[in-house]
Amino acid sequence: MTARVTPFLMFEGRAQEAMSLYASLFADGVVEDVVRYGPGEPGPEGSVKTARFSLGGQHFMCIDSPMAHGFTFTPSFSLFVTCADEGELDRLFAALGEGGAVLMPPGAYGFSRKFAWVSDRFGVSWQLNLE
User: Fold this and answer.
1) CB of 96 within 8 A of CB of 120?
2) How many CB atoms lie within 10 A of CB 124?
3) DSSP state letter for 57
4) At what angle do helices 15-25 and 86-97 cross, to 10 degrees?
5) Would strands 48-55 and 30-36 be described as parallel, antiparallel, or unpaired?
6) Contact residues for 119 (Cβ-Cβ < 8 A; gap 6+)
7) How far is the C-alpha of 60 from the C-alpha of 56, rounded, in Å?
8) CA distances for 44 relative to 19, 40, 47, 66, 74, angstroms
9) Residue 30 Cα to chain centre, angstroms
10) N vs C: which end of the chain shows fewer Cβ within 10 Å?
11) Per residue in 29-62, is it b (16+ CB within 10 Å) or e — as a string?
12) pLDDT tens for each residue of 12-62
């Protein structure tokens, strides 16, 4: 058996909101499995103990960490999305950018005829590239 690599996103109380948004934005986005903290467990009851979702055929895992950390997501790691058309790129840019931060506005940057980079409201970084 070969090793399997899965991106793992750690949230502090917003995992369900984040993965629901992500799954709604991609035609094949699916929340596959959610296990929640129960009474007496380390995390707040009902928060995400572990979850699996997929976007564009890529599987992800996420949690709501029961502990506060002195760090969060950084743009040094991002999700790269190859968009089929300009409308898709613009739609994803608007939805993911809502409440987030624009790192590079949509434009032609020499390496792409249209590219954008945004950090969403949860701090996850997305690079959007026109195919």
Assistant:
1) yes
2) 23
3) T
4) 160
5) antiparallel
6) 73, 75, 100, 101, 103, 125, 126
7) 11
8) 18, 9, 6, 7, 25
9) 13
10) N
11) bebeebebbeeeeebeeebbbebbbbbeeeebbb
12) 999 999 999 999 999 999 999 999 999 999 999 999 999 999 999 999 999
| 1 — pLDDT class (breaks 50, 70, 90) | confident
Do 35 and 56 touch, CB atoms closer than 8 A?
no
CA–CA separation, 50 and 125 (whole Å)? 21
Distance CA 44, CA 8 (A): 20
Angle of CA points 19, 20, 23, to nearest 5°? 80
Token pair for 48: 């995400």
Residue type, 80: F
- Token pair for 8: 């793992």
Q: Is the pTM of this model over 0.85?
A: yes
Residue position matching structure tokens 């949860």: 122
